[in-house]
Amino acid sequence: MGEIIFHVVIMSIMGVFLNESFKINTSRMTDIIGPSGFPRVIIILAMILIAISLISTIRKNKGKVFKGEKIKELNGAFLLMFASIIAFVLLVDYLGFFISTFALISAILYILGQRTVRKFLIISSTAAIAYTLVFGKLLNIPLPRGLGVFQIMSYFIY
């Protein structure tokens, strides 16, 4: 049943995108297709493939009785990891990218069962430094620096 609901949700999102593609400004159109042609083709193709997948799922589940089954994927670890990612997104502007990334990776390692403090610190700090250097220095992507003390500390790192 979850697969069918997922297909319907994705199909409705594609419908919203298709509706929005009709609002793209075509006043300075220089070619026949126009600026909205490519998105429409991709969205229509996606809708066709989703419809095929939905029909296949319905045929596969035809005759099955769905009980009030508990979803296995929604266990405590998944919910904690999801909460960690939401906390990262909310705090990255205040704490800065480096510290937020360190905290996120630390939380994920703890949730996944890593209890050795040495490995915990090495993996978290190495990953945070690597992500900061790759995105901040190598790719020149402006990363959030944080506020106050965190902003001052971020100037020493990137």
Explain how this protein is built.
The chain is mainly α. The chain has 2 domains: 2-60; 76-157. It is 70% helix and 0% strand. The chain contains 6 helices and no strands. Helix 3 runs antiparallel to helix 4 (97-111) and helix 4 (97-111) packs antiparallel against helix 5 (117-138). It is flat. The model has no long low-confidence stretch (mean pLDDT 86).
Tally the helices: what do you get? 6
SSE class: mainly alpha
Order of SSEs, N→C?
Answer: HHHHHH
Q: How many domains in all? A: 2
Summed over residues and divided by their number, the pLDDT gives a mean of 86
Global geometry: flat
Helix content: 55-70%
The quaternary organization reads as single chain
Distance between the termini: 48 Å
Radius of gyration: 23 Å
β-strand amount: under 5%
Low-confidence stretches: none
How would a textbook summarize the main sheet? none
Strand segment tally: 0
Q: Would you kindly provide a brief summary of this structure?
A:
This protein is an all-alpha fold and 158 residues long. It contains six helices and no strands.
